Batch of 2 targets.
Target 1
Amino acid sequence: MTTTRLDRWERRTEWPLAGSAAVFLAAYAWPILEPSLVHGWRRACEITVYAAWLLFAVDYTARVVLADRRLHFVLHHLPDLAAVALPVLRPLRLLRLIALIRVLNRRATDSLQGRVALYVSSSVVVVIFVAALAELDAERGHIGARIQTFGDAVWWAITTVTTVGYGDRYPVTTDGRLVAVGLMLAGIALIGVVTASIASWLIANVRAAEADTEHALQRQITALHTELLEIKALLKADAADR
Amino acid sequence: MTTTRLDRWERRTEWPLAGSAAVFLAAYAWPILEPSLVHGWRRACEITVYAAWLLFAVDYTARVVLADRRLHFVLHHLPDLAAVALPVLRPLRLLRLIALIRVLNRRATDSLQGRVALYVSSSVVVVIFVAALAELDAERGHIGARIQTFGDAVWWAITTVTTVGYGDRYPVTTDGRLVAVGLMLAGIALIGVVTASIASWLIANVRAAEADTEHALQRQITALHTELLEIKALLKADAADR
Amino acid sequence: MTTTRLDRWERRTEWPLAGSAAVFLAAYAWPILEPSLVHGWRRACEITVYAAWLLFAVDYTARVVLADRRLHFVLHHLPDLAAVALPVLRPLRLLRLIALIRVLNRRATDSLQGRVALYVSSSVVVVIFVAALAELDAERGHIGARIQTFGDAVWWAITTVTTVGYGDRYPVTTDGRLVAVGLMLAGIALIGVVTASIASWLIANVRAAEADTEHALQRQITALHTELLEIKALLKADAADR
Amino acid sequence: MTTTRLDRWERRTEWPLAGSAAVFLAAYAWPILEPSLVHGWRRACEITVYAAWLLFAVDYTARVVLADRRLHFVLHHLPDLAAVALPVLRPLRLLRLIALIRVLNRRATDSLQGRVALYVSSSVVVVIFVAALAELDAERGHIGARIQTFGDAVWWAITTVTTVGYGDRYPVTTDGRLVAVGLMLAGIALIGVVTASIASWLIANVRAAEADTEHALQRQITALHTELLEIKALLKADAADR
């Protein structure tokens, strides 16, 4: 595997982008969590969100330019394009924080299982937090809306992502429902990953016995090889004798 | 594998049938989405739906006639029979659009994983759209019905297929409940496919190590073979010497 | 495997017990579905239910007596004991109809996959029907009960077994909640079986390639064997020459 | 594997800790289930809960001291730390009863499948019982709370852990919602374990055929070895002849 220019770009921009996602998160979350924020700070947050968007747009453009097969790159990174091009999907940019988790993760744990578990659980926490923010932003103040505080939004996000869906809180606006759909998909993925991890762990245990069989096969063949070498030596000695 | 007459028929009718399913979809969806459609257009849509039904009935009959084991074919294609024979199940005919996806798919992607992912996600979109249409058709205008607009119907379909089931919208008519049952089954299948894909991917990764063991075995056996050929050459030279 | 006396008993009583379960089902379902049934028929149904119970009790006792390890048998067949001993769990006796499905199944299909699919789907249909009956029996007439017709009960059973749980219908009595718990467990099992079947099918496809590797190994080893036999023949001819 | 001092400590404290968890459970459950308990008994229960907490705190401290890598131990046993340090999470201490199940389990069953099934089902029962207690404790008496009796709490816990979530009962307090989140996670784990067990069982059945192939390989290689030994004997006899 050779590292392309795209790989180098992505490695170098990993930290700055994760950092700007964190700044974006703060500037995005503050006005939502603090509805009575004074005008000056609210304006500052808007500008910060805009600046972070600029950075993401520059990064996306650079990656398209650096890619070997540009159309292929665009088609395989549609969520990135959507997060940059559609203002309503801007919370998706926060998913870059998951990349940050990946970086931190690389240092924190050693086993593959631990890494997958830590990665999935931190991603779920980020997704729930971001979805609750976006939902609160979409619903608050609408007539008949049942999600009016951040606590309610987090509670709703958790009942949705686990597919429990009590129905005591649910979105009533179109924007809020779009957030809900994203969260439901994340929920199905979550159930899938948890189940699949347990299944692969169980199956790997069963597999241990099979690996033993294969190693026994290898030992048997090695024994055969030793015999053959002895036979060749005998034959050569025989030929030399005569 | 020899291609039977049935195979040839199915390959040839793939595109025309997918096309007539698309026309059927338009003629089925329009009066539902536009309740105030003038009588003339409404009549035209009814005739188109009827014409499409005729095509499907002809195709089904032809496939039964061409099959080698007719009873076996009928028993293994009960949904096709139901979609043709029962007017209430006519939305099932739209599932042929999924066949269209399969055809397009064959061109668009190259990897097996990409193909499965694209196929599942497009099928889910078609199923949700068709179920929302059928649900709206069944529920609208009924007393106490909570699904009165297409937006509500799509939202209800998504909360159902993901098994979240808030309960803010649910069908109250028998026809609407039948559509819901189909959608719930699709939801269980969706969770199953997502989980199974992740599991098989995880297991395949674990399996890579095993494949290495097997290839090592093959290399060992090839080395044995080389030795044996050398020994045979020695023996033959020996026999020639004498 | 030797057939024990218990095996022979179970094979011989398979059909009579499935038949008496069918009769029991009719006698159990009729008064529930027809609340205005006249006293005479209602009494006849009660007597039939009692007679079927006697048969099941005799069968259970006979199986305990015929078992080699009686305590082990009782501990591994607790649901059978519960269905016989606890009147509230008598709907469990209807699960013997699933055994009937198994018998019919043996004749109807040939492939393992078809058999599993048919078995699971018929079991789900039986479980939903029986649970709807038991639920209607438990809830009807209670204050605040939302399940008052058989149609509602079937709809509720389906939303429960798929874990969708809209919440438009739910049990309010203790007996009704016990039925619901059984149905939820069946739902989790259903999701598990569907997912596991898809996963094992996907994995089996991946496995085909591996089986090829193993067969290649076998062919290589067979080639080695042929070489060795040739060498032995050469050596023997050599020894005979001298 | 050598047994460390930590292992010995954990083996020796297994029974006393499970016992004190049982006592803790009684002293925790009694005032919740009996709201009209007289002051004296209520006080006794509080003291018992405090004493059990002391035992758990001592045990946790001892395990940290005895661990080889203390920081590693603390990071990998965060739930234990939380259960000891945060009063609101004290129901987590009851999970030690699951350890008791493990001990009893070791005696009761012989097959791996039976053990997993028994372990999962008893854990689910303990988790539902403990969650219902904690939920009732958190919700009872609050304005608008819908969980006011133990029966309701158990019913709610079961609808939550199976992810059905009718929405007829749901928590409205922050403490109650925290308990619900724990229960939803347990529900996802439950679905995961059930599905994964079925999948690994199905796959193991498919695998049986493969194991046969491997054993055939072993037999083939053993036959090769026999041939080689014969050839060596021939060669040696040959060399001795001359």
Target 2
Amino acid sequence: MLHLEHLSLNIPDTNKPRVVIIGGGFGAVNLTKDLPDKDFQVVMLSKLNYYGFWPLLYQVATAGLEPESIAEPVRKIFDDRKDFHFRFVRVTNIDPAAKTVTTLIGSIRYDYLVIATGTTSNYFGNQQIKQHAFGLKTLDDAVNLRSQLLQSFEQASMTRDPETRQALLNIVIAGAGPTGVELAGSLAEMRRHILPRDYPGLDFKQMNIYLVDGLDRVLPPLSPESSKNTHEYLEELGVIIKLNKLVDSYDGHTVKFKDGEQIRSQTMVWAAGVAGAIIEGLPAEVVERGRYLVNTFNQVQGYEDIFAIGDVAVMKTDKWPKGHPQVAQPALQQGAHLGKNLVRQLRNQAWQPFSYFDKGSLAIVGRARAVADLPGNKTLRGFIAWVAWLFVHVYYLIGFRSKLIVLANWVYRLFTYQRGARIIVRPLIKEEDKMGEVFVRQPAN
Amino acid sequence: MLHLEHLSLNIPDTNKPRVVIIGGGFGAVNLTKDLPDKDFQVVMLSKLNYYGFWPLLYQVATAGLEPESIAEPVRKIFDDRKDFHFRFVRVTNIDPAAKTVTTLIGSIRYDYLVIATGTTSNYFGNQQIKQHAFGLKTLDDAVNLRSQLLQSFEQASMTRDPETRQALLNIVIAGAGPTGVELAGSLAEMRRHILPRDYPGLDFKQMNIYLVDGLDRVLPPLSPESSKNTHEYLEELGVIIKLNKLVDSYDGHTVKFKDGEQIRSQTMVWAAGVAGAIIEGLPAEVVERGRYLVNTFNQVQGYEDIFAIGDVAVMKTDKWPKGHPQVAQPALQQGAHLGKNLVRQLRNQAWQPFSYFDKGSLAIVGRARAVADLPGNKTLRGFIAWVAWLFVHVYYLIGFRSKLIVLANWVYRLFTYQRGARIIVRPLIKEEDKMGEVFVRQPAN
């Protein structure tokens, strides 16, 4: 390990306005694209060195896609810019008076600060769940969950004890939002087409996929019609849906619900809640339910030069009184919009308020089973929604290479029902020596 | 974590002869293919759930290929067999008197036992090097080394201290065999075509790639002619070659050589030696220099029903007095050959002795820079050797899907000089909380 004192942010000073962006996701990358290299210095501070296409993360967790195929290195995206500076570091504080942000290895002055940190999992203060449940927010999480699922099947093949086997074959997904639904659907397809071939000694009728939510319907952000369609598809695929149901505790072995029910499970995935990734330093009153309150210019309440975009921002408008949905589109649009406003500023033009263009919502449950809410209160379902889903997701994946590989994988899977990435990769060497690889378990954090 | 006492190997009893294979590599997989499902029960015990195409592992470490593209799940390869039983578990002991092998979760009786465990890194007893150096034996290792290299460049971008920066940009590869040479060449190509674009703030003239070996030439298993060609290619690519040079110690910061020279480096890769992965239980006299002594039927000395194949076996013949080279071909051929002999046994036919068909050796240094030793003391170099290398490696990669993706990647890189997999994935969550992702360092073991 390197000593921190040898590192510093090491950003050259220029005469251009410096835009410091915290985060490297949809909003951050789209904003940077709209800031001309000749007019702005862009400093991007991120804890991940890649731009992840998070809507497909569940595919990585279920061995459908390689991790690398849904990620682009941030530096590669902007390798033609001369005054773009990526730094792989954690931000710890914002000082609006001094106009600086502080990182683990030093501070940097900003002219404009953009908070585009997205969300983190929200465990509502339950440390036990945080420790034992598997998250699904980054590639690390997805690779970890993939290994956990495959190891569970391996272990289930190696027990004669019915209770142990059942605990290994019970997968509990807490949260029936898009992540939970798509993960449950993908697991159900895997159970149907892949796992019985891979594990002929196991009876996959015993495998239970529980999808649990505290609300009274799946996919609550979508229309009741799409929720109903999704519910139907999930049941067709054999997912056990439990609504109006809250998780009380999870010790890594047993999920206990608030109503007293218990399910023994070695794998609980936590997709039940997110909170904006708030940075210390701004006053508490600009944060509401874990999101920065912003005006229609994405300015954080009370600041002219501090912005928040995407999931971490809440912009209340007449049409969206609770703010926009925490999905990719508002982040992409706000990033691009803020970029254009900063260019207007440079030209002394008036800023334009942001207006969200709702392109609709899509979710996939399985092959030829998808749902869509279109603008104008129309809904789609079935094969046509599935084709729309495929098209939209490939279209938005950045980079020629990723698209090609994702497409190749999909075409391959379409014809063969196969999944290639069923590889257990768990670089947890220190624990292996004690326990042997087969028993290593690393809950996501 | 699951308690071990709940697990057992859980293999059904049949009337067929049971072949227990320890390992899941070239020899093990090729052997299984030649054992008819209807005649044999095959039990494969392995610490990895995938069949890795190890000759391309350095490509994963240098972000050229995704980990999944050089690996196939073992279960997928044999999913059409009814009496094949894969178990993801570590073997701890062999008891030839009882005809059983013992694993972490119980024992199993064998009719034929095949040891196909390959090799592990040999640190010649130096625990400090083992702790701090990066290995390159499995996908875990390769992903870990890839992350380490990328993190080093990230950190080098964040320091004004010239000594720290130099330590981060010095990569020391101990061992100039095929792995060391191909890794050095690939890193040199990366330095030339990729890194200056990704890290415009760094001067890659400062990046030093040291290739160190205790012997007096690179690629000692190949002909002197090919060694000379390889040496020339490596120097063209700017690799610093140090021969007749032995590593004395490495503390994670400074490589000390036996002759007193020191190089500060945050990344030393250990490719300097391997030893057969010996299992406890057989008498010491059947092991010579970490390999099981076998006769021309691959029977371990003194046993009729215990075999060793591939790297972990040493079969001394007139033509190969020190045994065959520890590469893929002998393992593949011995696996297939043993399979045919076991079938002969079933039919009461006489066994055939193994004879190695040397197809030649290939190594790649960079684009259009490869060397080959062909049978009959001929050598190839340059573009034609490179094309031969491409052809052979794609040909031997198992599985339609892998080939397609590897080819797509190569074609893409051929035209663009790009590498897509520059993703830092390090599921080392527990250490992150203390130190922040940017400073996590996990040496391979």
